[in-house]
Specification:
- This protein has a domain of 72 residues.
- It contains twelve helices and 18 strands.
- The strands form three sheets. Strands 1, 2, 3, 6, 7, 15, 16 and 17 form an eight-stranded mixed beta sheet that branches. The protein has an eight-stranded mixed beta sheet with strand order 8-9-18-14-10-13-12-11. Strands 4-5 form a two-stranded antiparallel ribbon.
- It is globular.
Length: 419
């Protein structure tokens, strides 16, 4: 049996979206070639005149800013493509679950009888009078998938879902003693491993999108997908800040909030760093060497899956650097949706990382899947509020999330300081 394609269905829109993404990626690569040409001219002037021409330097910086804007626009197109359409397209659609139908009725009209009959009422943690209803599983899964796309640290960290308020995880600081024995020889008892109990409490993250009566009355609009699209950016921005620099009080603890020590003095529960030797600046000669030192401060077992984490300003500074053979250290993404590469390792753009400054740590390098743990408490809740902002209807949407370092040997920092 064959089916006939209907014009205007998602396949057509997907093709148009891919064409737009391909065009944006082509413009990005063209700008990068222009950047390399201008920067080569600047470096040549430094060698010939002991100083770059001001006009050339400004040209390089201008093209670098254009690269950043084009990359941001390309990332936005990719996120938009990953987001499901809000309208209910004509053609075949899978039947919604009973929970999804009941949730849709609650959001549109405030009628919660179907939800109550399904016994899905869930009270918010620690406060009995603030009620809410769990979103359908499909919506929760979609929110989680899109957060992984737009939340930079979540995209490379380990993520675990729990049902309780706190995850307590034992971690072996040192493994048990081992040795070689003959086939029939006695096996002496090994020493016990040294364990540390890590605690990851979850904290409440909320967003409050508003809808008009016309939107809620429009039956073609998929309301639960609208809620997911409205809250994803707010959740991702708050998560991104907390995973990098959160203090652990009513929020996850960011990896930059832990005690840092010089790599030579590294100990468990601290994050090791390599210093540039210059306050707020790169080393005067061979600045790329300090990046190599940072890479090899990480043990070989962690380097296989390691990534760089930095913001766009730091990335713009590194983009101008070359190695001893004259090759650029920073390389653009190989395809739309992939990451830029630095010395063979992917670059994760996290705008919450600090800028280059005295004693700042604007670069992190490590295996974040082993080093940082994101803890999601199961369930995203929505409370409908038609009273606080008339004529708009507010949807108080909450999820609980925690996070922290789980392996202190898996992440290293580059510090712009003397020591």
């Amino acid at each position: 049996m064959t089916t006939r394609e209907t014009p205007g269905l998602p396949e057509t829109k997907s093709a148009a979206g891919m064409a737009e993404i391909s065009g944006a990626f082509g413009e990005f690569m063209t700008s990068f070639e222009a950047f390399k040409s201008a920067n080569d001219e600047r470096l040549g002037q430094i060698e010939d005149r002991l100083g770059a021409d001001v006009v050339t330097t400004e040209k390089v910086d201008r093209i670098s800013r254009v690269l950043d804007e084009q990359k941001r626009a390309l990332d936005g197109l990719l996120v938009r493509k990953a987001r499901p359409a809000l309208g209910r397209e004509s053609g075949f659609q899978p039947l919604p679950s009973e929970h999804k139908q009941a949730f849709d009725a609650y959001v549109r009209t405030g009628d919660d009888r179907l939800l109550r009959s399904l016994d899905t009422k869930a009270m918010s943690y620690g406060s009995g009078q603030d009620g809410g209803y769990l979103v359908p599983d499909e919506t929760e899964a979609a929110i989680g998938e899109r957060l992984a796309t737009i939340s930079p640290i979540r995209s490379v960290a380990s993520v675990i879902k729990v049902s309780g308020a706190v995850l307590k995880k034992p971690f072996a600081i040192s493994g048990p003693a081992v040795g070689w024995v003959a086939e029939t020889a006695a096996r002496p008892q090994t020493n016990s491993p040294t364990l540390d109990e890590l605690s990851f409490p979850t904290a409440e993250l909320y967003a409050m999108p508003a809808a008009t009566a016309a939107l809620l009355e429009d039956s073609i609009v998929n309301i639960d997908q609208w809620i997911g699209a409205e809250v994803e950016t707010a959740f991702a921005e708050q998560e991104g800040t907390a995973f990098v620099s959160g203090d652990g009080t009513n929020k996850p603890k960011g990896f930059l909030s832990y005690t840092t020590v010089a790599e030579a003095d590294w100990a468990w529960d601290k994050i090791g760093y390599i210093a540039t030797g210059v306050s707020a600046a790169w080393p005067a000669s061979n600045p790329s060497d300090i990046l190599i030192d940072t890479v090899y401060a990480l043990k070989a077992g962690y380097r296989q899956n390691a990534s760089w984490v930095m913001n766009r300003k730091t990335q713009a500074a590194i983009r101008k650097m070359k190695d001893a053979d004259g090759n650029y250290l920073w390389q653009p993404p190989a395809a739309p949706g992939s990451r830029a590469m630095l010395m063979g390792f992917p670059v994760v753009e996290a705008e919450d990382m600090p800028d280059i400054a005295a004693d700042a740590t604007p670069l992190a390098f490590g295996d974040f899947s082993r080093g940082y743990l994101v803890v999601d408490r199961s369930g995203v809740r929505v409370l409908r509020d038609p009273y606080s902002a008339k004529p708009y209807v507010l949807f108080y949407t909450t999820k609980r999330v925690g996070g922290g370092v789980q392996d202190f040997d898996a992440i290293k920092l580059l510090k712009f300081g003397v020591e």
